[in-house]
Each structure stands twice: as C-alpha cells, then as structure tokens.
Specification:
By secondary structure, this protein is α+β, with helices and mostly antiparallel strands. The protein has one domain (6-294). The protein contains seven helices and ten strands. The chain has helices at 6-13, 16-20, 22-36, 102-106, 112-122, 237-244, 255-265; strands at residues 41-52, 126-134, 140-151, 166-170, 177-185, 188-202, 205-220, 227-236, 268-270, 276-292. Strands 1, 2, 3, 4, 5, 6, 7, 8, 9 and 10 form a ten-stranded mixed sheet that branches. It starts with 5 loop residues before the first helix and ends in an 8-residue tail after the last strand.
C-alpha cells in the first residue's frame, strides 16, 4: 500500500488531540485562511449525533424548519390542509409533520435513537458537511456547503460519540449535494435547498431514502469548530412505508395503522388524488471536526 493510499492519508490526517484543542484548532484555521487568500479555506465536520424529531414538545412547539417558504395557519390545498407548527423560539411556519408520528412509531417498540447512534458509531451512517470558501466561524458572506455520505473506520470516545479529527472517504455511488452562497451571521448559517439520496443502513435494512427541499440551519462553535443545529427535508411517504416500516421485525400487525398514519400526515407535493406524496421531517444534528479525503486519494 503506497503513500497515496486512503489508509495512509487517514493516519496523517486524523489527530483527535489536535481537533479537541481549541487554541491549536484556531491557529490552524488562521494559518489556512492566511494561505488561501480571499477565497477562504475548506473545513469539514462529520455528524456525530443525529436525532429524529418524531414528537412535539410539551408546550406544543415543534423543532423543525420552514421547507416550503409558507406560513400556513389556515388549511391550504398546497399542503393538503396541514397547518404549520411554531418552534420553541416562537418562529412560525415550521414544517415537520413527522413530529406527529411519534406515538405510532412507539408501537413498533425498540429505540430509534439508539439505532441511529449505533449506525453512526459503526460507520454505516456517516454524514459529512463540507464548507468551502470559509473565512470565519462568526461572519462570512459567501460559503459553499456540500453534504457527502462517508465511509471508513470509526473511532468512538468514552462519551459514546465519534472522536473529532477523523478522516473519511466519500462513499462510492452516493449523491453529494451542494448549496452555494450561504452566509454566516453572528455564528449562524442557513443553507438551502438541496436534494440528495440518503443511503440507510440500520441493522439488516438497506435502502435509499430520497430527500427533497433540504434545508440546513446550524450554529458554529468558534472555539471547537463543532456545529449544532437542524437538518430538514421532505421524504417520499411510499418509500418510508415500503422500505422502512415494512421491514421492521414483528411489525406486520401494526403496518396498516402506521401506513395510514403516514399517508394522512403527508404535507408536501400534492397529487391528483387530493393527497400529498411527501412528508416534512427534521433532525437535530451535532457535528465534530473531520477530514474528507479527495477521490484521488481513495485508491491504493
């Protein structure tokens, strides 16, 4: 295996101590910025935590994003008569109909949060976020954001999360997404919209989940370089029914109820039958520093 191999690149790039040291990280970013000139530098994170928002808050608020640019406080045909939610900060127009599916999902048993975290830690669900043209974690007027799906060995810390500073290949055959001209204002970024296909691999289930009207809303930690926020998008209801619910072990008796519930919740892309084909969703995310290996470095 030569010096240009993926494995040797990981050995040179992955340095958890460097990634966990704010002073060293800040210095590295400053040096990168100085070397790259007005175009900025490229910086990446891997999502170490992804939480599916499948329930509303106790006060009725819902975590999510406005995916369609509308604020529907009265029924409308464009959203199959589904009303928008308000988020915990009082922002209206939130699209996340999956938040009403939690009680039905609970009928299947199991722990979806643990399954998702397990898939991340074992390396079967690695979502990489790459920022190109970045000059500052605080304020920047023009950043290109890319979402990739990664692969490679993972290192998990004592906290049960991916260790910062690891490097990953882009998974062959997956679809990356790009959003241009995103802005960072006071450490906060909104980026939209994108379409991609999420390769789902949880337990014995393997399927591709299309994501439409994708939005990203994140906050940067200037000391650690980590991000926290929300990833939202619309997913096809029929794909959820056929490829996810139908494959849950022991869920055959619940399937008709769950399928009917999902179809009734769909709120985007109305069809000629008067129902909607897509369901708005949201996930809370936490990303830690990572390195995305260029395709040219993935060959042995």
């Amino acid at each position: 295996m030569g010096p240009g191999s993926s494995k040797s690149r990981r050995a040179r790039l992955a340095d958890p101590w460097l990634a966990r040291t704010p002073l060293v990280l800040s210095l590295a970013l400053l040096l990168s910025c100085a070397d790259s000139g007005p175009e900025g530098f490229t910086y990446s994170v891997v999502l170490a935590e992804v939480g599916l928002v499948a329930n509303a808050g106790a006060d009725g608020s819902v975590v999510g994003l406005n995916l369609d640019g509308r604020v529907d406080d009265v029924p409308a045909l464009e959203t199959c008569n589904k009303l928008d939610f308000t988020d915990p900060d009082g922002v209206p127009g939130i699209d996340n109909q999956l938040s009403l599916f939690g009680p039905t999902l609970a009928l299947f048993g199991g722990d979806p949060a643990a399954l998702i975290q397990g898939a991340i830690n074992e390396g079967s669900l690695l979502i990489l976020v790459e920022f190109e043209g970045l000059n500052s974690f605080e304020n920047d007027n023009d950043v290109t954001v890319r979402l990739h799906f990664g692969e490679g060995p993972t290192d998990v810390g004592n906290d049960g999360l991916l260790v910062p500073g690891q490097s990953f290949d882009i998974q062959p055959g997956t679809m990356s997404a790009e959003m241009r001209h995103a802005r960072i204002i006071d450490g906060h970024m909104e980026a939209s919209s994108f379409e991609t296909v999420l390769p789902v691999a949880i337990l014995d289930q393997r399927f591709n989940l299309p994501i439409f009207s994708g939005h990203l809303s994140i906050d940067f930690d200037a000391d650690s370089g980590e991000i926290t926020g929300i990833l939202g998008g619309a997913v096809p209801v029929q794909t959820l029914i056929d490829d996810l619910l139908a494959e849950i072990p022991g869920g055959e008796s619940i399937m008709p109820i769950a399928a009917r519930a999902l179809r009734g919740l769909a709120d985007l892309v109305p069809n000629e039958l008067g129902s909607c084909d897509q369901l708005s969703t949201a996930m809370t995310i936490h990303g830690v520093t990572a390195f995305v290996l260029p395709p040219s470095d993935t060959t042995d």
